[in-house]
# Entry
Amino acid sequence: MSIEFEKYHGTGNDFVVVDADEYVPDRGAFARTVCDRRDGVSERDEQTESVGADGTLFLALEPEFSPPRVVMTLVQPDGSTAAMCGNGARCAAKWAAEQTGADAIMLDTQAGTRRAELRDGEVTIEMGSPSFSPGDVPLAPGREDPLVEETVEGLEVTAVNTGVPHAVAFVEDVNDVDLEAVAPAVRRAEVFPEGANVTFASPRDDGGYDQRTYERGVEGETQSCGTGAVAIGVAARRLGRTTDEEIPVYPPGGRLDVGFRDGRATLTGPVEREFEGELASTPDPWHVSEA
# Structure
């Protein structure tokens, strides 16, 4: 059986989008195959090549509501699900807006309901209230104090949940960090019983931060991480590095803007639709011709 899909990305953080009404018998196996960076879903032309993805978004649209609602399930390349993904949510909102013509979308995620607004070619998503609480991150059972500027597996980090857990490390230059050598041990450290994304930040002259993130579930670096960008902003404010309520963050894939209002965060940036096609609903490597 074949199903239709679309491919979107937010500042290089890319996702295969599937309508949840499509029959996919094993979503984990499907995501592991479609997201594979060597043999996954692909489009090639004379100038570019896109293979695999950072996740698969299964989206259930409920257009009868105002604003329209979308139930979002993100299945990661290792077959696990993630409670929240900032760029994934922005891609989901863009997809729903294209289906309905709406400029505001409500997204139901495992981290809660989030409102998205589309304006001037960008999508802004509410990211909720970040938390340093040991129970929210979560940290190891029995821990009573937040993990702030502590050394974990040789790296000084601050732990915060921005929909998913992040260990944030401020460094002089993110480009000098060997993520593959440093991040995996922190990602799996005992203090993070559910694992953690590992996000590195270095200050810029414009008051923002450069970003690199090793993502749990992807098990590698991504071109952008929205929850990581928010984690940088909230950690910088917690540590007294900034008091700004608008913080530009620059992952390798582009620019994201993190905002703070009344203890709640927002994430703003561009979203692009890459291509569409059809593929088998059962897990098997494939390539998709340009549609």
